Amino acid sequence: MIIVNIDYLPGKEFEVLGIVKGSTVHSKHFGKDFMAGMKTLVGGEIIGYTEMLNEARGIATQRMVKEAESLGADAIVSLRYASAAVMQGAAEVMAYGTAVKFK
Length: 103
Known about the structure:
The protein is α+β, with helices and mostly antiparallel strands. The chain has helices at 30-42, 47-70, and strands at 2-3, 14-27, 75-87, 90-102.
């Protein structure tokens, strides 16, 4: 599956199949959440949350691709990611784009 964050694919004509998306809500266990809170006192990257969001983006992307494949898509254009806190220590990550089929 070709996935791009631009609105076109150079040299390719396609028909739009529709919007596809995938999402997941992730959290870290209490120990990592507690250590992240301690890290905010001294500053710097909170690696546990970076890893959590990277994993969540991967899962959301996989789910989006699965939805696109079910439509018979060859590619997804205009990929975007969004995230939101759902509660303290938990975040939703959504991947969305437009499924297309080559002509």
